[in-house]
């Protein structure tokens, strides 16, 4: 196939893949395929710097409260966490609605006193075109103290799974950063102007000594360390439970659990994330690890852990992936072209396994996510395209063979040829064959004595019958040379005894001619006589024509001798006017009756050849 056509086919396949993966179904298929990488990798060690304080079932049972809790509880939580040595406290809880003024103020004052608290707000994106988005900041006492806060917007992929972390939202040409970014920016130094030190370009978000690679303009792919409940967590109630705080749910028991936690040092110098882990507060999401949904606060923990360890995930460069696709397509196209379909399928399966292993290694060792489903479908499409092309080429080849041979080859031989088209070696090959030449005696004189129409009609009738006999005996009509017939046996499909088939043909041609002669005499038409020569030997056989004209024929001394033997019938008064060479006789001597004539030298041959007169079949 021309290179230009191959390129067109490959471009079409690439376009098809790009188009179908623009649809949600195939996007989700790609997401699910990439999720397997997380599950096959398994859990990663988590940072010992991160702890979660969960608002869980035990918290609601101990406090005997409904949500939202009084702000004084959160103030108390900040105090106790700082007593336990927490380095930073991040609230994955939105304090965006006012409650009791004194409680709201106390919360802000407590956070301002310790200078290590990050609060949460959010951006309400517009649902209708033309409507502006809205910023929902924390309550005014918090913003008046200019305490750091970040947004908690979390955008799921089309299938509802959380795989990326929103680093910022652009609002009125200003970036509003997430609580994770606010945490990192204030981790070493708690500062009011922290957002001014963050730089964003097309590839990464830069803050302090961290560079977070971007995906989808404002997000980062989260390198989840494991499924839900991977990080150490304490109950919100446990931190509040000291000697100064009454727990209604404990029914008068004084457990004072906070002191044991404080004295154990498990919170010392830790980043503490506070958030809901109870199902009823609907802050849980599916993640690549599957299974139980992961709480929003633990997703925040996964993001912080990823940045602190520098263990990022990035998508493979799309231009590099395109180059890989092109190389794969070209290589597989030519590989599948030379392999049989069943071997192509095995090669495809093996390649898919190898590519998945490479993807898993790149994911585990380099944090690179390569398209998986897209690659699989791409390779399947090139396999299907190669199969269709193979089928189309085969059908074209078979149509060519059928058209080329059905007029002068037996149907069963045509079918054998279609089953094994490689037997038609372009340019010819050396084969043992038998050639039969038949010629009308004195046909020039005959045609001069009859009108052209009479000559054409009788020749047509004669040749039609002779060709039927040739085809019925598994011969191939090579050509007509005026009134001369040249037939080949044993090609293009091998025959058990092509010499015998040629001899049968010659005898049947004589019988047929006798019937035709009787018929012509009855019709008042002058009959004619024929001579036949048969020879067996090696000859160059194949498509010996030009690029414009297909000509399946044979050449060589074997063919020349066959033609000379036919001419010898004029010199010998043979019974059937059929002369065969010694080479043919050796193949059929046990099957036919033949009389030895003599040893002759024919034109073009230096060595004498024994010739025989073919009489009948035994």
Sequence-ordered SSE layout with sheet pairings:
Elements: H1 3-20, H2 24-41, E1 50-55, H3 57-63, H4 71-83, E2 88-94, H5 101-114, E3 117-124, E4 134-136, H6 140-144, E5 149-151, E6 164-166, E7 168-171, E8 174-177, H7 179-185, E9 199-200, E10 204-207, E11 210-213, E12 219-221, E13 233-235, H8 236-240, H9 257-264, E14 271-276, E15 284-285, E16 294-295, H10 296-309, E17 314-315, H11 318-338, H12 341-366, E18 368-369, H13 373-405, H14 411-419, E19 429-440, H15 443-449, H16 452-472, E20 475-481, E21 484-489, H17 498-522, E22 530-543, E23 552-555, H18 557-568, E24 578-581, H19 582-588, E25 592-600, E26 609-617
Parallel strand pairs: 1-13, 1-14, 2-3, 2-14, 3-5, 17-18, 22-24
Antiparallel strand pairs: 3-4, 6-12, 7-8, 9-10, 10-11, 15-16, 19-21, 19-22, 20-21, 22-23, 24-26, 25-26
Helix pairs in contact: 1-11, 1-13, 4-5, 7-10, 11-13, 12-13, 13-14, 16-17
Subcellular location: Cell envelope
InterPro entries: A/G_cyclase, Adenylyl/Guanylyl_Cyclase_3/4, CHASE2, Nucleotide_cyclase
Transmembrane segments: 6-26, 316-336, 342-363, 375-393
